[in-house]
Amino acid sequence: MFFPRTAMERDLPAIQKILQENWIASYAPLEGEELIKAISADWHAIEKLREQLEAPHSEFVVADDGTQIGAMGFAVQRADDEAELLQLHVRSDLHGKRLGSGLLEELENAFPNAKRMVVDVHPKNDGAIRFYQREGYVEFDRVETLCGGTYDL
Fold this sequence. Notes:
By secondary structure, this protein is α+β, with helices and mostly antiparallel strands. The protein is built from 5 helices and 5 strands.
């Protein structure tokens, strides 16, 4: 059974693997494998993940069963009444086990003054959209760029 806990330095290689595998599986069919591998190599480098661990006004969590990391999530406080979920990824072999729901709840509870949690989802990532809708999230704005901007190879 997996339990949520705060991420630690020793978790970073497992977190990096989850992120890289999920990004390729989710976004390469939408944006091209070369681009997604380049973005993931940059954004999911151990040094960048370490910065997230140390970021102020943030929460970095994993789902851990004592032998393996099955999922990860990272969110930050953006304003007094708003938090932003920046990452929520579950290993593909563990989908359907409610790890994402458990970590999402953990992250929502980490920001008790936030009246809403903002999530940025690729408009063609139907699985993620369905997940967030099941969790009670609603679309309020749409941005048509990859990850909020452009990325040059």
